């Protein structure tokens, strides 16, 4: 007897994710009130699946319990395994609420073993109003629209310590905001139209100065000619002044008059250059002796991974604290400039991705080889950091995750970069070139083979574009010029972990590579550690890097210092010394 369609007593729910930051893949009804929901992976990266955010309509209120089985997590261990639960809100109850722990189950399902080998999450829920729309999410969302609305309100306020700029635009033409926070910074940096007018005035001044200089030089030459004529007339070489002037071969050697003119021009040029190296007056402060000094510079970035929404709330809280009237915040803005980029990957946030941007690239793995086409935000941020680091003290002592490849190039330790690694890369490139030549020129792009788009070697991906050294965009060069001379002391990249509790910090040692079995002791010593990876109290570099974690330990009750080399960071090619919290 042929099997017909399954008949259910209740109407089917309508489940979708067609809204900002929404993410859900296929939906399958497997029972009267049971649904299997597969999380949609990031484009080109099947291993990036964790964030979900979906809407449910056409519900039957106060009926039987519904079960939603969330499938496709890319990790065996998530926050759900240590007690976290998803959140829910509805049209009539717009405030997000955590689903009770007795309604969420994280377990390995034998029934779903053919679909996934990893644990699944089952959510048991009862709806209360038929006309409501219900939203379920992995954790609290923080969208690009929320950020834009908040920043718009912030700039309309009477605060004078915030200046808003656009770092660049993404592949999908979304704005990437950059905030400058310091005392009195608002309206101190001229607008783009004012800058263009100032450039026009500067060009006119330069032309006028060039005309005055030419006139001054011509007058000096004329005086020299007249003096030479008088001297020759005394010797009786010529009979008339007019004939002697016409016979003189120009130009004459420089005399003290011309030398003094040249010196005055050189002094004017050097004075201009010195003025250009100084920060904007608003970014100057005084030291303990009352001497004017540049303010210290701190760069904070967040949300390079779209699914790590707690990082957005941390940066939001940091911004709220910095603009508050609290004495410590005011004292900090008196002596420092905080550059905040609150959302590096707005395209990924809008699309509901977990790690990648709209091109399927993990931007956090591209700071050492950014592209204006594939990763414009990484490109412009890299250029900005390098420009800000030039001419400063340059010791960016604290570092989160993978920006070490970028920052090692501009600090005072750049001369310690391992030349052996560079030579090995050159040899590998040469070997690949030889292999491609032996195949008759049918060579796949080497960047594609290594999976630089955040995908595996056999996934469909576009080739990487080699753009060379990042160049700062003309639209934000005025920021570079205003901050020129301010020492870049601290770089913080905010993330959130999908499984670990508490907080943790990764810092950048001198040698960020994982030590090999043969040279562990030398590698640990080069990183400022003892022979077995323990902190070395005699190493000043390491003690500097521990300052920030020690301050956190003393002032934050959830932070404990535990120094180790996390294996997952080593595997990802990150730093080899960590400060973590269990």
Automatic annotation (TrEMBL):
Signal peptide: none
SUPFAM superfamilies the UniProt entry points to: Zn-dependent exopeptidases (SSF53187)
Pfam hit, one: Pepdidase_M14_N
Species of origin: Kipferlia bialata
Gene3D superfamilies recorded: 2.60.40.3120, Zn peptidases
Limits of the Peptidase M14 domain: 140-582
Biased composition (Basic and acidic residues): 191-238, 417-446
Cofactor: Zn(2+)
Protein name: Peptidase M14 domain-containing protein
Gene Ontology MF terms in the entry: metallocarboxypeptidase activity; zinc ion binding
GO biological process: proteolysis
InterPro entries linked: Cytosolic_carboxypeptidase, Pepdidase_M14_N, Peptidase_M14
Family statement: Belongs to the peptidase M14 family.
Region described as Disordered: spans on this chain: 187-251, 270-289, 417-466
Residue ranges of coiled coil: none
């Amino acid at each position: 007897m042929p099997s017909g369609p399954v008949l259910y007593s209740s109407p089917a729910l309508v489940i979708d994710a067609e809204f900002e930051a929404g993410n859900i893949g296929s939906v399958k009804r497997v029972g009267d009130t049971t649904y299997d929901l597969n999380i949609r992976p990031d484009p080109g990266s099947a291993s990036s699946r964790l964030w979900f955010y979906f809407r449910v309509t056409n519900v039957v209120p106060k009926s039987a319990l519904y079960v939603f089985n969330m499938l496709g997590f890319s990790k065996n261990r998530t926050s759900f395994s240590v007690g976290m639960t998803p959140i829910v809100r509805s049209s009539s109850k717009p405030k997000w609420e955590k689903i009770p722990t007795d309604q969420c189950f994280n377990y390995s399902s034998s029934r779903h073993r053919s679909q996934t080998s990893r644990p699944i999450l089952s959510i048991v829920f009862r709806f209360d109003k038929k006309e409501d729309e219900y939203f379920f999410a992995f954790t609290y969302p923080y969208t690009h629209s929320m950020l834009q609305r908040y920043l718009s309100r912030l700039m309309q306020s009477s605060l004078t310590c915030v200046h808003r700029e656009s770092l660049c635009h993404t592949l999908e033409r979304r704005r990437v905001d950059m905030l400058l926070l310091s005392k009195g910074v608002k309206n101190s940096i001229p607008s783009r139209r004012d800058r263009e007018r100032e450039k026009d005035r500067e060009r006119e001044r330069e032309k006028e100065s060039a005309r005055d200089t030419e006139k001054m030089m011509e007058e000096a030459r004329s005086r020299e000619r007249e003096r030479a004529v008088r001297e020759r007339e005394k010797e009786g070489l010529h009979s008339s002044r007019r004939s002697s002037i016409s016979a003189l071969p120009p130009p004459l050697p420089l005399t003290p008059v011309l030398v003094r003119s040249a010196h005055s021009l050189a002094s004017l040029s050097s004075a201009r250059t010195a003025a250009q190296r100084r920060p904007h007056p608003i970014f100057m402060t005084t030291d303990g002796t009352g001497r004017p000094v540049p303010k210290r510079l701190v760069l904070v970035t967040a949300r390079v991974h779209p699914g790590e929404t707690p990082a957005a709330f941390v940066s939001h809280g940091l911004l709220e604290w910095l603009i508050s009237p609290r004495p410590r915040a005011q004292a900090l803005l008196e002596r420092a400039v905080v550059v905040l980029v609150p959302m590096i990957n707005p395209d990924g946030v809008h699309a509901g991705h977990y790690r990648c941007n709209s091109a399927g690239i993990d931007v956090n793995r591209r700071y050492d080889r950014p592209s204006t086409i594939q990763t414009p935000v990484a490109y412009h941020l890299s250029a900005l950091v390098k420009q800000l680091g030039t001419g400063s003290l340059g010791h960016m002592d604290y570092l989160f995750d993978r920006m070490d490849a970028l920052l090692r190039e501009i600090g005072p330790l750049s001369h310690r970069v391992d030349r052996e690694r560079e030579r090995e890369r050159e040899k590998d490139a040469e070997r690949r070139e030889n292999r491609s030549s032996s195949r008759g020129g049918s060579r796949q792009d080497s960047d594609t083979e290594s999976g630089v788009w955040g995908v595996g070697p056999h996934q469909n991906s576009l080739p990487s574009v080699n753009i060379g050294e990042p160049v700062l965009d003309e639209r934000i060069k005025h920021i570079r010029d205003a901050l020129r001379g301010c020492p870049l002391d601290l770089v913080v990249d905010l993330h959130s972990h999908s499984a670990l509790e508490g907080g943790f910090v990764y810092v950048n040692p001198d040698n960020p590579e994982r030590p090999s079995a043969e040279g562990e002791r030398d590698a640990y010593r080069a990183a400022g550690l003892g022979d077995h990876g323990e902190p070395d109290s005699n190493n000043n570099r390491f003690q500097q890097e521990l300052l920030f974690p020690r301050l956190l330990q003393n002032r934050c009750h959830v932070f404990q210092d535990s120094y180790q080399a996390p294996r997952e960071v080593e595997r990802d090619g990150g730093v080899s010394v960590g400060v973590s919290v269990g």
